[in-house]
Design goal:
Layout: E1 9-15, E2 18-23, E3 30-40, E4 46-56, E5 61-69, E6 76-82, H1 92-115
Antiparallel strand pairs: 1-2, 1-6, 3-4, 4-5
Length: 120
């Protein structure tokens, strides 16, 4: 196959019919992922997250287009697409996302602490 005629593919992501992102990397070497993570831990702690990210292999740079929590009943649609693609989030947003995750986990910690205070 003639590489000069190949177009990079990406992933169009929608939640409940609402456009979330058109993730893709216009480079020759890349990795692109869309992942739903569902976690349930002993003690009732749980998480539901949709992440869309990838790796620009040429620059060894991790990229993120979307990272947010899901609710029961959410419908996620993935479609393989050709460009144009959305630009990834600026790398500083990753720190903001991690801070948001930390705040959510702390909130859950204090909820559990209050619920279990009679058993501690």
């Amino acid at each position: 196959m003639d590489k000069s005629k190949m177009k990079n593919l990406g992933i169009n992501v929608k939640i409940n019919g609402k456009q979330v992102c058109r993730a893709g990397i216009d480079k020759e070497n890349f990795v692109l992922t869309s992942m739903v993570s569902l976690v349930h831990r002993e003690g009732g702690s749980e998480g539901r997250v949709l992440s869309v990210g990838g790796l620009d292999s040429d620059a060894s740079e991790h990229l993120n287009w979307y990272h947010d929590h899901l609710s029961p009943g959410d419908r996620i649609t993935f479609e393989v697409i050709e460009g144009p693609f959305d630009a990834p989030l600026p790398s500083k947003d990753k720190a903001v996302l991690e801070e948001s995750d930390l705040q959510r986990e702390l909130k859950r910690y204090y909820q559990l602490k209050e619920e279990l205070k009679e058993h501690l």
